[in-house]
Amino acid sequence: MAEGAGARRPRVAIVFTGGTISMRFDAAAQGAVPALSGDDILAATRGVRDVADVASEQWGSFPGPHMTVERMWALRSRIAELLRDPAVDGVVVTHGTDTLEESAYLCARSLPWAKPVVFTGAMRSASDLGWDGPANLLEATRVAASAEARGYGTLVTLGGRIFSAVDETKAHTHLLDAFESPGLGPVGVVDEEEVIFRRALGPEPPIIQPPAPATPVDIVSAWAGADSRLLDASRAEGRGVVVAALGRGNVPPDMVPGIERWIAEGKPVVISSRAQRGRVGDTYAYPGGGRRLQDMGAIFAGSRRPQQARIDLMLALGAGLSSEAIRGVFEV
Exposed, middle or buried, 3 (CB in 10 Å: 0-12/13-18/19+)? Predict the structure, then answer.
């Protein structure tokens, strides 16, 4: 928000949910565990209150792997409440990095507001040399307070880089620059006190706002020699399934009967790829090839990674969309 005579300072709501940013080494447990409150982290984040008027809340204290679909949706609902407040200019969410991309993508696909929502976290705990939590929180707050961030929807900011939540992923297990947007790169950077956006976003499918996401929706991976056992086990209770296929969207022949049984029951099968970059397509027509799967009625996920396709499918099923409407969601 621009400074100047009579200009109101931007107001940023910070929602602390847990993750490594709130962790410290515990001698008894012999590892990092949740230990710090949001107030503790704010106190360590020098200069954050110079960036914006900050209002914070302790929403939870969950490690990334402890997030569930229900918790993700409850967090999304709380963010929606904050965005409806005309006094709030942006929202920052601290989150465990293991599932940060999923919660951020859920918000990106189901929150229509122009105000920025910025997810951040830490790769090192408060006990580690070079704890990155305070710097990441400061930079995320700077992005959320920036007028330039309006219209970019949900973002992820770590290590000085700004990513769109619709295309970022955790690409490394522990380095500080663990997050990437494969094939695209960040949308911008935080350079000291300046927020710089370097590329626009491409067209996105319509926002989906169901009463709640439909569950269960599983991801079943393909690998050399995979068969239909996991597909059949998932089908018993599953509302839909995402196949993390090979390469361009192909599966071993022994997975095909399992996919056919899902489709015969009228349950959607979405084909994604376990590859980090590129789209799935109907290039190959051999048994198990993408052309055969498409002809059977499977839905192609485009460039979505499996965890993203799963969220879109949960949202679409939760909204009660027809099979053709679900196909339209993925074919944008």
Answer: exposed
Give tens-digit pLDDT for 253-311: 999 999 999 999 999 999 999 999 999 999 999 999 999 999 999 999 999 999 999 99
End-to-end Cα, the chain, rounded Å: 33
> What would the two tokens of residue 109 be?
């696909």
> Does residue 3 carry a pLDDT above 60?
no
**Composition of the chain by helix, strand, coil, percent to 5:** 35, 20, 45
Q: Which residue has the tokens 């909204």?
A: 319
Q: What is the DSSP string of 182-233?
A: TTT--SEEEETTEEEE-------PPP---SS----EEEEE--TT--SHHHHH
pTM: 0.95
Residues recognised as catalytic: 20
Amino acid 4: pLDDT: 46
Show the tokens assigned to 251: 């599966």
Indicate the burial class of 200 (C-beta count within 10 angstroms; 0-12, 13-18, 19 or more).
exposed
- Residue 173, token pair as written in the block: 């297990």
> Is there a contact between 149 and 155 (Cβ–Cβ < 8 Å)?
yes
